[in-house]
Fold this sequence. Notes:
This protein has helices spanning about 10-110, 110-130, 135-155, 160-179. Helix 3 packs antiparallel against helix 4 (about 160-179). The chain has 4 helices and no strands. The chain is rod-shaped, with a radius of gyration of 49 Å.
Amino acid sequence: MIVFKNPSGKIIPLLLVILILIIIAFGGGYYLSFTRFNQKFSQLNDRFNEFESKYEMVLSSLRSEQMETTAYIKEKEGKTQQETNQLRLMSILLKAKGEIISSKISLTRDEIKKSLEHLDSSIIVLRDAFDLADGNIKEKIEELRLKLATVKGIIEVNPSKAQQELDKLWREIDTLIEK
């Protein structure tokens, strides 16, 4: 008869050792995976921070350029508005000059009523110019309006003297246009 030895006493510790080795292998694998994950996470976090800082720099640069462009546009708008007002003022002064010259021509034809109408029209036109003007030019326009009103009174008394005054007045308007 053959006698079998009971190997069961040795199998359980062997299985326990193998189980412990498997658990250690899983733990080691888990630790290595976790370490690699942390490294990759750190790398991605660093890259994200780098991207974020570049984004902030670009964004602040764009804001700065936008503010410069806005300031430039506002400056140009102001200059354009000023030039537009200056051109309107010159246009109105030219219209007033034309009315004064028309008044003088009507006066040379002995059309006193028509001459007075042109003078009234030039006074009204100069009022519009007065609204657009500023400073020294505004004062000169007001003086011109007063002189035109005076010439209006002179027309009925002395038409030749009024012609000379009208001649001076439209030349004064020329000096205002040149400024």
